[in-house]
Automatic annotation (TrEMBL):
Residues 52-141 form the Methyltransferase domain. It holds the Pfam family Methyltransf_25. Coiled coil: none annotated. GO terms for biological process: methylation. Transmembrane segments: none annotated. This is Class I SAM-dependent methyltransferase. The keyword GTP-binding does not apply.
Length: 224
């Protein structure tokens, strides 16, 4: 088990896990929720110019990008992007790029953003940094959809420790037998909304059995 910074560990863990990652989407108990979200995603970004953060193997990309006018799916790891680029997407509209989620954009160019199962991996002390970086790429009125796990006993890895900042960690094992401590937070609705602040308008929080979805309109002109 590595003892470097959680962010470094996380990126390395997902690089190693890339080829076995989508097994998480084969869990039988989650199929109803997954199908429901896959059916909903295309309409969420209809006609929009979207960016996807930490797209991983691109499991959700074909659904999120299906009716978007353009879609840029990004991830820090080339190991996951290689698999994402093989997904059945329209290569004219959908592109993939290696990119750090914490990096700011040079200009606000997108009117939609999507991040699946990324919030939970952001240390609590970096949530504001990450959201500021995300929002730096968005035009006013952009639609944002963030989606992640609810903690469900027996379906998620147990929490094995909590640090002084309140981040929680799981121990996970890969097919090669290696064990990894992975930062994985499970925010409540109140905690998530408190981080977003007043510039997130028309906020909607939806829960399925296994997941939560947070949708909002980015309104930088809004004041608290
Ligand atoms: C839980 S996976 C989510 C993948 C995909 N969004 C999904 O829902 O299936 C987290 C992803 O974050 C990526 N990642 C780790 N650190 C990152 C960073 N600093 N910036 C962007 N992506 C990162 C990993 O490579 C991995 O693909």
């Amino acid at each position: 088990m590595s003892t470097s910074a959680p962010e470094t560990d996380l990126a390395q863990y997902y690089a190693l896990r890339a080829h076995e990652y989508e097994a998480v989407y084969a869990k039988p108990e989650r199929q109803v929720d997954i199908a429901q979200i896959q059916a909903w995603l295309p309409g969420a970004f209809e006609g929009r110019d979207g960016v996807e953060v930490a797209c991983g193997t691109g499991f959700w990309t074909p659904f999120a990008a299906r009716r978007a006018s353009r879609w840029l799916a990004t991830d820090l790891n080339e190991e996951t992007l290689v698999l994402a680029r093989r997904k059945p997407v329209d290569g004219e509209r959908v592109h993939f790029e290696r990119r750090d989620a914490y990096a700011s954009w040079a200009a606000p160019t997108f009117d939609a953003a999507f991040a699946g199962f990324w919030w939970s991996h952001v240390p609590l002390g970096r949530l504001n940094d990450w959201l500021a970086a995300l929002h730096s790429g968005l035009r006013p009125g952009a639609r944002v959809v963030l989606m992640d796990n609810r903690y469900v006993e027996g379906s998620n890895h147990p929490i094995h420790r909590r640090d002084a900042q309140g981040n929680t960690y799981q121990l996970r094992r890969l097919a090669d037998g290696s064990q990894h401590e992975v930062l994985k937070n499970f925010p409540t609705q109140a905690e998530a909304l408190a981080v977003l602040g007043p510039q997130a308008c028309a906020v909607q929080w939806t829960e399925t059995t296994y997941y939560w979805l947070l949708c909002y309109t980015w309104a930088p002109e809004a004041r608290g």
